[in-house]
Amino acid sequence: MRWMAAVLLVALLATAPLAAMADAGRAAPNCQTIQAASLGPTVSVDGDTCTIVDLGVLSPGDVYELSLIIVDDAIDFLFFDENSIQPYELGQSYRASMAQPASTEAAIGAYEFHWSVPPSITAKRWYMVLDNQAHDGDAGQGDQGGITSVVSAEVALLTQAYWTPFNDLVAVGSDDHTVLLSGDDLRLDAGTTVVLSAWNLEFVGDVYLQTRAMYDRYVANGVGVQYIDGGALQSVSSPQSLTWQVPSTLEGEELLLVVDNTDTPLGGGNGTQMLRMTVRLELSPPLTPTISDDGGGEVALGESIVLDASSTPNRLGQQGTFSWDLDDSVDSNSDGNAVNDNDATGLSVTTSWQVPGTKTIHVVMTAPSGDSASTTHTVTVNDITAPTARMQADGTPISNGWRVDVNNTIVLNCLASTDDDAVSGCSWTVDGEPAGNETSLSLSWSDVSLHDVSVAVSDPSGNTATAAATVRSVDPSLPAFDTELFTRYPTKVTEGDSFTFKAAVSDEFDPASVLRVHWDLNPSEDTDGNGDPRDDPDLVGLAQPITFDTAGDQSIVVTVFDGSNNSNAYAFVVTVEAAPTSSNSYAGVVLMVFVLLIFGGASVFGYGVWQRRLAFDLLLNRGLSEDEARGHMAMIAQRTKLSPISSAEAYAGLDQGEVVPADEREKAARQAEMDAIYGSNNDVDQTTAYAPPAYAQAPLSQASSAAAAEAAALFSDDLAPAPASTDASIDPLSALMDDAMEEPVAPGVSLPETDAAPAASVALPETTGVVALPTSPTSAVEPAAQANPPAVASPSEAPPATAPPALVRHTCTACGALFEVDLPSGVDNAVVACPGCGTDQSIVSS
C-alpha cells in the first residue's frame, strides 16, 4: 500500500508547473530553515535554492524511519549534525562532513530507509538539507540545480522491539561484505526466535546468518554450506524478511550477521555496484522461568529450603523480576485468587512451611521487555519430628509421678503435649492395659497400691511419643509414736556419756515392718538434700545408742515414715554437761622437768670441771709449773669469754698459740742479747761483698730480735730508750751495727740493699708465775726502757784505723760505659753491676 501511494504522489507532482531556474549559484547559500514538525505534505525547492529541515535534538542510537518522494527535478538530501553543517552554510567544501550512508546525491523518485542516529557522547541537533543548487563546496558532485523540485518527506522515530540488536542503513562497496553482529552479540538461548528484515536503497545485495565455521568458509571461498538453513535473504531488491528459531544444537554458539555484495554464494546479487540496504534483526528470547530447590523437592516441616530460578534462560538478559506465590492453597492477599500472592521476590528465595503436605509454588517472571511468563514448582513438606508427650495430674507430686489418697480420684491429661504440626490423639495405658483415647483420664483405687500410667501422643503424620509416670494410692493417715517412751529420754547427760534411745511406732494401713524411723542428730543441716533438714537418716531404726562427746545442748529429731511416705516427727533437746577435770595430772610432768633440769646442770658443770682439768694437764705437759699453769689459765679466763662447754684447748689458751715456760723465754732472751753484741760466726766472702746476695738472710728468732733491740738502745747518743719500729723490714742487729760503726760509702757505687727478716717480739710476764702470750705474731716490740738490760762493758782499747779504699776505673765489656768503683782496703777483686746496662763486671785492683 505504501508503494502504491508513492507512485500516485509522483504522478500528481508530475503535472505541477515547472518553476523557473535560478540565475546563478552563490558562494554562501542562504537556505530556508523549517522544523520537521512543520513539514507539509510536500515541499517545493526552487532551483538554485536549498531548504534545511531541523530534525531537532536526537539521542544517539535512536532509529528513525525516513520516507522521501522527489519529483520534477533531482535534488541532494544531505544529513549534518550541529557541528558538521557549518561548512555547508559557509559555502565551503562539505562532502567529507555529511553523514553517511544516509546522505544521497542526485536523488529522484521514492526512497525509504531506517537511520540510526550515530553514536556521540551527548545528544546533538541534526539537520536534513534539501539541496537543489550548484553549491560551491560540492566539487561538482550531485545535483547542480535546475527547475523546482517537489519533495514529500516524512521523518518518524521508531518504537522498536526490546531485543533489536541491529536496525540501520548499511553501505557495502562492490565485491565486498560487512559483518554487522558477531561474538556474544549473537550467542542465543535455544528457542530464541529470530526475525531478519532487509530492503534495498541502492542496488541489490544479500543478508546471511552464519556460524563461525560457515563464515570462515565463506571468506575463504571454500566449498560447503555458507549460511544457516532458513537464515538467508538473497537478491534483496524489495522488502524481504524471514523468521528462524535457534535449535538446541546452536544454543550458546557464536552466530554472525553478514551483508554480502559479492557474486557468491549462488543465488544472490552480483556485487558489481555500491550497495545501500536497510537491515533489521529482531529477537524474541524464550521467557520460560525454570525453578529448582536444594532439597530435591522435599523438606522437613519447619526446615528451610532454597527455591532458585537462576537456571532460567538469560543470554539476552530476559530474566527480569520474579514474584513467588509459595502456597497455592493459601490466599495470603485475600483477593480471592490463591495463586497470585506476592509472598516473596527475587531470583532465589528461602522459605519454610509449618503445615505438612504437597506445596505448589507459582512463579511469575516479568522480562525487561514487559512480557511475562509463569511456571509452577512443587515441594513435599514432611513432618518427621515426633510430638513431645507431657502428662499432667491434679494429685500430689512425688518423685516420677503423683500420689492420691485411697478412694479418692486423680485426673490425668495430655493437654501440655506439643508437636511441630499438631497433636492428633492420646492413648492411655494403666499397668500395661489400654485405658482410653481421650485427652484426659480419671483413676481411683480402694487400697494402698502402686500403678504405672503411660500416654502415647501422636500427630497427623503418624509420629508418636510416650510419657510415663507412677501413681501411688496412699493412705491419708499419719504414722504414730508411743509417746510413753519419750518420757524415758534423759534431759541431761555428762560429756562422754552414751544412751540408747528407743521408739515404738504404728500406722493405720501399714504394718510395723513397712515403717521407717530416722534419727536426725543435726536438725539444722539437710544432709540428704530432700529439702527438709529435720528428717535426715543420720541413724535408722527403732533403737539407737547415741554418745554425747560435746558439751552443750544437743537437738535430736526422730521421724517415722509409712509406706505412703506420710511422716510424723518428735523433737527433743539433751543438755550435755562438761566432764570434771583433775589437776594431779600435771604434777608428774613438772617433777620430771625439774629433775631433767638438775641433771642437765650437773652434767654441764661436771663437763666443765673435766675440761679444765685436762687443760691444766696440757700446760704441765708443755713444761709449765703448776703455779705458771694456774696463772696462765686464770689470765685466759679473764681475757676470753668461755662457755660451760668449752674444750680443754680453749681453757689452756692453746687455741690462741703455743705456750712456752718462763725459763725458756729467759734463755732465748739471753741468746739474742749475745748475738746482738758479738754477732754470729758466719764470715763474709770478700769477693761478693758488693754483689747482691744470692739468697735471703735467715731471720732472727723472737728472743734474739728483742735482745738486739735492747743492745742497740745502749749505743744511742742520748742513751734514751728507742721505740720499737713497726716496720718489719728493719733488722735490729743491723741497726746496732750501723750505730757502732759509721763509715762513708765510696762514691759512684750504690750498694745493694738486703731485705731483713721481720723481727719477732717477746712480751715478758708482768707478774711472777704468769706467762704473757703475744696478742698477735706481728705485735710491736715493747720499748727497751721497759726491760732491764744488763750493762755492757766498754772495750779495753780502740780498734785499729782502717786503710782508705782504692779507686778503680772500669770500662763495661757489654755497653762500653766507663765508671769508677771504690774497692775497700784488702779487696783485690769484686763483681759489680754496670750502672749503664746492669751487666755484672769483674773488677780487679791494679
Which CATH C-level class of the largest domain is it?
Mainly Beta
User: CATH superfamily of the largest domain, please?
Assistant: GOLD domain
Distance between the termini: 171 Å
Mean pLDDT: 82
Total strand segments: 45
Number of domains: 8
The helix fraction, in percent, is 10-25%
Rough outline: flat
Uncertain segments: 1-26, 682-701, 714-796
Strand portion = 25-35%
Radius of gyration: 73 Å
Label the CATH architecture of the largest domain.
Sandwich
The secondary structure category is: alpha+beta
Q: Tell me the CATH topology of the largest domain.
A: Jelly Rolls
Please give the largest β-sheet: 7 strands, mixed
Number of helices: 9
